[in-house]
Amino acid sequence: MIPPPRPRRIGSAGARSKPALSRARAEIRALRAEVELLRAASTTDLLTGLLNYRGFHERLADELARCRRAGLPLSVVAIDFDKLKQVNDSLGHRVGDEALKILAREISYGVRPSDICGRVGGDEFVIALAGVPEADAHHVVDRVRAAAGLTVPGIGRLGFSAGIATMSADGGGEHLLQAADVAMYEAKRRHHNDARSDRIVALRHSSEQAIVDSQRLVNSAIELQQQTRSGRTRRERTLRERTVSKRHRP
Description:
This protein is α+β, with helices and mostly antiparallel strands and 250 residues long. It has seven helices and seven strands. Helix 6 links the parallel strand 6 (160-167) and strand 7. Helix 3 packs antiparallel against helix 4 and helix 6 packs parallel to helix 7 (210-248).
């Protein structure tokens, strides 16, 4: 006759394993928290606390997918502030960094908590507005302009140019951020040529425009760069001529 199995008894070895298991679980929780911190650091702009280029792209991709499923529009706003280079050159980068922090905070005040804000360049910010059509995106830009009213002594008010690109409820949006950039550069170009021009340009986007948009973006950037450099060169030449004239004056 086979004897019945003897019941297992939890002895001192089992008791000793419980603290070890608790420590292992605590270490796993600590490692997970550290991974989350590292991930947040890799997607956050350390200066302003907004999303950086990578973080904004990741969140934008999620929002695009969500809006497509729900049949909602999505607008992206690209904002480029004026005179920040002048602030850095005249008052130093520390003052320029403080100005960027203030502007980032004011932009956040001007949008909804659910909207996605990021800093994707030196003085360029972007906002993703889920469920917001183009007409309403203009109102958002107006609110941001009113909120981000920073005036720097000796420099003046830091205005901005804005570009809007909107994905319709049934459209594609893979190049939405690029299209918003195109519109923003167009707004800067118009304002450079005529200070009274509207500083908001909306570009109706479709995925078929990707190549055209890219070329327009490059052309607008080159043209604006050439105009700025030409104007700076003329001012420098005039200043040199005046200096030489003063030196030779009897």
